[in-house]
Design goal:
The protein is α+β, with helices and mostly antiparallel strands and 208 residues long. It folds into 2 domains: 1-30; 31-205, 3-Layer(aba) Sandwich (Glutaredoxin). The chain contains 5 helices and 9 strands. The chain has helices at residues 2-23, 73-89, 112-121, 136-140, 180-189; strands at residues 44-46, 51-52, 62-67, 96-100, 128-130, 144-145, 147-154, 157-164, 204-205. The longest helix has 22 residues, at 2-23.
Length: 208
């Protein structure tokens, strides 16, 4: 009897530990890319009606992949910076690809049609893709909007080199002191090891 009771106690404790590990820190921690992982291909609908893959950019040395959306105040505050990043780095081989992971059934202002309107209103110079299946954001492990993944092409593979925030002030672009993402790209461009590989993405939770 004591043996059975002890077994039940141990089982409950183990299940509790698993639950805490899996769901602490605002959601599941398992899954998602880490630094050095190979990014899988994408094939997503752009706001111009075309399907975009990484192979759509044959001259790219890598990509600045940013999970963002129409509605989150942090994402809206980052729009001009994302346009500026594309202008700064696209011709150097690192174009921006923005992906909206939000479910419009949960967040009605994140429909594909409103994505098209947003891209036109803000003159986005980069693809703004609709993750309709809600699988790409999960594969990356994106938790916030915006959430950045810097990929670098190495032996025909896209390797994750930086994950996190665009810079140190998502709320106010004019108050930025450290450009985390831009610094990482610039280090790749001159062949240096990235010194700061991960930062905390600050923004709204992905709405799925």
């Amino acid at each position: 009897m004591k043996t059975r009771y002890l077994f039940v106690l141990l089982l409950v404790a183990a299940l509790g530990a698993v639950a805490f590990t899996s769901f602490s820190n605002n959601g599941p921690t398992s899954g998602g890319y880490t630094i050095g992982d190979e990014a899988a291909p994408i094939n997503l609908l752009n706001v111009d009606g075309t399907m975009i893959t990484y192979d759509s950019f044959p001259d790219a040395q890598g990509f600045i992949v940013i999970f963002t959306c129409n509605t989150c105040p942090y994402a809206v505050a980052s729009e001009d910076r994302i346009n500026a990043l594309d202008a700064e780095f696209k011709n150097q081989g690192y174009p921006v690809i923005a992906i909206n992971p939000n479910n419009p059934a949960v967040q009605p202002e994140d429909t594909y049609e409103l994505m098209q309107q947003k891209a036109a209103d803000k003159s986005f110079s980069f693809p703004y893709l609709y993750d309709e299946s809600k699988t790409v954001y999960a594969e990356y492990g994106a938790k916030k909007t915006p959430h950045v993944y810097l990929l670098n092409k190495e032996n025909d593979k896209l390797i994750v080199k930086y994950i996190g925030a665009i810079d140190d002030n998502v709320r106010n672009g004019s108050a930025v002191k450290e450009r985390f993402l831009a610094n990482a790209v610039n280090q790749l461009l001159i062949g240096e090891e990235i010194t700061l590989k991960e930062t905390k993405a600050i923004g709204c939770s992905v709405k799925v």
